[in-house]
Amino acid sequence: MTTIASGTDTLTRDALTVLQPGFTGTTAPDWLLRSLGEGLASVGLFGRNIASAGQLAALTAQLRAERDDVLVAIDEEGGDVTRLEVRTGSSFPGNLALGAVDDVELTREVAAELGRRLAACGVNLNWAPSADVNSNPDNPVIGVRSFGAGTDLVSRHTAAYVTGLQSVGVAACTKHFPGHGDTAVDSHHAMPRIDVGAEVLAERDLAPFRAAIAAGSRAVMSAHILVPALDPDRPATLSRRILTDLLRGELGHEGLIVTDGMEMRAISGTYGIERGSVLAIGAGADAICVGGGLADEETVLRLRDALVEAVRSGELPEDRLADAAERVRALARWTSAHRTDAAARTASGTDGDVGLSAARRALRITGSDGFTALTDAPYVAALTPVANIAVGDETPWGVAAELFRLLPGTETGSFTGPDAGKDVLGAAGPRRIVAVVRDEHRHPWMAAALDTLLAERPDTIVVEMGVPRAAPRGALHVATHGAARVCGRAAAEALTGA
User: Mind spelling out the 3-state secondary structure of 87-128?
Assistant: First the structure.
């Protein structure tokens, strides 16, 4: 390809500075290290980049050898969305579990402990927490990533999470502004639209972001959603009315504004990533997140050159790009100033088992009268929906592994579709069935499978690891409020009396 920039002038350096790209592999490629020397100030990490804590620490040290103040970002919400523990499941329950407990001090402790683990690995910017009010129970992408459906609940826990995370020197990036909770479409696939009035938005969706800003959230992430009451023409990520007038002006956010992934179809399928990136910076965004799907040097050069050309053509004011780059550098200075010895940070502070403790407290058990703890190895039937892209399908979930640890000989299988119930009955044989579901209320086939199981085997135990909106049923019903590894362990303990 032909590039238009030399890589050394101020304009080009600023264009690189506002990018937050990803890459493939567990070591930094040469092009990325070279870009850090040319002005790139941020790098985004994903599950594909992480094999172990030690490897991650070596990777971030490799990045800092090129640029000491580099922002190393990650999408580590805990719960269902984990990159640090992508292959094992998270040691921390997610937001819905914390909201179910509703102990803001616990939320702060969980966020601080998660932050310590990130900091020990050299990560200093977390694309979390989700401040979305999950007002639409059929939301396909938020769900357990939200603290809940109540504005006040979400607001106080968002603030506690921001406080806990930043207390250990990891910058919070509160998302997805102005609120992704009332959507029925996943913005990874298409453009969601929220059709409610400005007053509802102000009272319901914006309140948690006000709380996050008041708590000092160093960054806010925009959502790729169309909100006609705020801007009838452009999605939030590309809207000056939403990012500059509302977030900066009315809400008073002075920190970084980061876009959600620009390769998501809501943007790439409508505007394209180059055009979208120019419009986003022009609207008031300061950092362009790209790299979840597009993770190569060509993408970085394409976006860099699109920004440079937009300035040279007069479409994008040069001072807007310069201001965005300076905000990135300001956050880098903050993280550098708050960096302390990682070992000391990890050794001090909250209990390392705070995640498991929180998961245990989040359990809601129905029908326990007369229930006898499992002593024989059961058959665990995972009724498995298609995972959304934010969660991914790499991370294990369920209770089978934890039940096997407590009851060796436990068997398991994954089932989906209209014949799932009948298939489970055939696979389980005489064993006691533990049916594990995720958002039963959103999947008619899943509800039908439970109908079949409970008609034939009324002693079936049901474990709901999504949003527990469907009525509890089964000989015992356990709601974990999330599918993190610790949630599975807590449920297994409850079933066995461990």
Answer: CCCCCCCCHHHHHHHCCHHHHHHHHHHHHHHHHHCCCCEECC
* CA end-to-end span of the chain: 61
Distance of CA 7 to the CA centre of its chain: 33
Q: What predicted TM-score, i.e. pTM, was given to this entire model? A: 0.94
Cα–Cα distance for residue pair 83/51, rounded to 1 Å: 10
Pairing of strands 433-437, 219-222: unpaired
Number of residues written out for the chain: 498
Question: How many Cβ atoms from other residues are within 10 Å of residue 209's Cβ?
Answer: 26
DSSP 59-77: HHHHHHHH-TT-EEEE---
Residue 245 phi/psi, 5-degree rounding, is: -70, -45
Secondary structure of 297-330 in HEC code, one letter for each residue: HHHHHHHHHHHHHHHHHCCCCHHHHHHHHHHHHH
Q: Which two tokens stand for residue 139?
A: 């939301």
Distance between CA atoms of residues 351 and 331, nearest Å: 29
Whether the link from the prior residue into 481 is cis, omega within 30° of 0, is no
What are phi and psi for residue 45, nearest 5 degrees?
Answer: -110, 145
Which tokens belong to 202?
């102000």
Q: Do the Cβ atoms of 208 and 155 come closer than 8 Å?
A: yes
Least confident of 140-149, 275-284, 351-360, 399-408: 351-360
Determine the pLDDT at residue 352.
61
Identity of residue 442? R
Strand 288-289 and strand 256-258: the pairing is unpaired
Q: Is the peptide bond before 458 cis (omega within 30 degrees of 0)?
A: no
| SS3 category, 360 | helix
CA separation for the pair 495, 132 (Å, rounded): 32
Rg value, the chain, Cα: 23
Q: Using the 8-state DSSP alphabet, how is residue 80 labeled?
A: T
Q: Are 168 and 114 in contact (CB under 8 A)?
A: no
Catalytic residues: 188, 260
Question: Measured between alpha carbons, how far is 352 from 367 in angstroms, rounded to an integer?
Answer: 32
pLDDT per residue as tens digits for the range 272-308: 999 999 999 999 999 999 988 889 999 999 999 999 9
Q: What is the three-state SS of 369-438?
A: CCCCCCCCCCEEEEECCCCCCCCCCCCCCCCHHHHHHHCCCCEEEEECCCCHHHHHHHHHCCCCEEEEEC
Distance CA 383, CA 438 (A): 7
| Strands of the 476-479 sheet, one edge to the other | 364-366, 476-479, 461-464, 433-437, 379-383, 411-415
Q: Which tokens belong to 265?
A: 């179809």
- Amino acid (1-letter code) at residue 60: T
Write the single-letter amino acid at 377: A
